[in-house]
Predict the 3D structure of the following.
Amino acid sequence: MVENPESSKTEVAAIDPEGENYGLLAARAAGLLAAGELVALPTETVYGLAADALNQEAVAQVFAVKERPTFDPLIVHVRHEAQLREVAEVPPEVEEALVLLLSEFWPGPLTFLLPKKPIIPDLVTAGLPTVAVRAPSHPVMRRVLKELGRPIAAPSANRFGRISPTSAPHVLEELGGRLPLILDAGACSHGLESTIIQLEPGPKTKPLARILRAGPVTPEDLKRFCKVELPRKRSGSGEAALAPGQLASHYAPRTPLRLVETPEEFQPEPGKRYGLLSYKGDPKAGLLDKTDWALVSELSPTVGKLAEAAVRFFFVLRQLDAAGLDEIIAEPIVEKGLGVAMMDRLRRASLNH
């Protein structure tokens, strides 16, 4: 890895909810946000590039620092339901369903797309009439939200379209020198961005949850409370985003990545260095013997557990991306539970090349 000389302009401060400096560091981060600065904060999903969601100038910095197009909206993070209702309208026809889902999944990695209130700048929502809102469960993010007393806009703390960061060193590698402070609370516990849903009235009394982005709250989780519509596959870069993280080409390493649905699709070219992103390193998947791989990285070595694979997903992508390969070949992951979200990310990463 080539060290970024600008990284020294960004302080990385270790923070522990049990540590003596916890409150001081959280207050310092909140102070920077209140002054219109940006701070990288941990959440249970990925690290976020945080700004005061009500400060349009600060939000504009988020887009500039990430090199993110302004037609891709941001998620607004709140502490609780009362703060959600300050930034979003809750249509009466989904009120009951929303309250039920909040009680089950908040705080946590479930984001709701709702009609926005005027308090939210149009820049946050890319001019759309809806705003994406969630209450994170990570204690550091929650403490900073409390200290600031205002909602926080926080997309993933990486340059646009790149691999999402699940640790502070990943943030420093991506954005070092572009922000004053990163709070380092270690690795994220989920490793995949939040599930985004839009509630609509459904048949009889059961509401419909349209999944706009798959994530840690799975379709199976939601089916206990709602009728679920799975996210459709997005195939073209010309499609507009209705919610954050929906653009067709996204989550991509620098190294070209190809998702190979069947072993027959992969015919290695002589002289090329290939890396394999494998679910569990199972020879029965049919790819291990296809070539002399320069590197094989497994999401859940030998056991094939989706939860472990999800936590390791972006870490393994970064590992392969740093290996000097000509191409990354990715095995398919079973599309159930967390596998839906991982396959969504792999398909979109492969569209970049």
User: Anything to note?
Assistant: Residues 249 and 352 are 6 Å apart (CA to CA). The chain has a mean pLDDT of 91. The longest strand covers residues 110-115.
